[in-house]
Design goal:
Blueprint (H helix, E strand, L loop, with lengths): L1 E4 L1 H9 L3 H10 L4 E4 L1 H17 L6 H10 L1 E2 L16 H10 L3 E3 L3 H5 L7 E3 L1 H8 L2
Parallel strand pairs: 1-2, 1-4, 2-3, 4-5
Helix pairs in contact: 1-2, 2-7
């Protein structure tokens, strides 16, 4: 099953326990396939580095190396007109279309509002975990 993780889910899974962490475990264990675009990976890295500064004992380099090796990367084309209220979130939708991925896991209200766009389901981490991983 192909899945796109919004940055908040990916980074939360690196720093905290709970559904985002369990989703990353499922990816590590080969239960799900994580897909992303170069723009999404760049955002993971940028946000992770900012949060790592607030948590000096955490080294994210091994996770990012793992992500680069294991994430299936798709090139995307931006939308002519924004779909989300926050156009920066459109990168997750364009990646879903390019990869033919039907599930985005996110807690972002702008993405959650457009669930169903082009048959892409956008679900919260707990809902994804309960629906697909248990």
């Amino acid at each position: 099953m192909k899945v796109i993780l919004d940055t908040n889910v990916f980074i939360s899974g690196l720093f905290f326990s709970g559904p985002p962490y369990k989703i990353l475990e499922a990816w590590r264990d080969g239960i799900i396939e994580l897909v992303a675009s170069p723009e999404i990976l760049e955002e993971y890295y940028r946000v992770g580095e900012i949060l790592a500064q607030d948590h000096p004992g955490i080294d994210l380099s091994s996770w990012f190396e793992y992500a680069i090796q294991r994430v299936v990367i798709f090139s995307t084309n931006p939308f002519i007109e924004p779909i989300c209220d926050d156009p920066d979130d459109d990168k997750f939708l364009t990646c879903a279309l390019a990869s033919e991925c039907k599930i985005i896991v996110s807690g972002d209200k702008h993405l959650l509002r457009v669930s169903g766009f082009e048959s892409i389901e956008i679900v919260r981490p707990r809902e994804f975990f309960e629906k697909y991983l248990t």
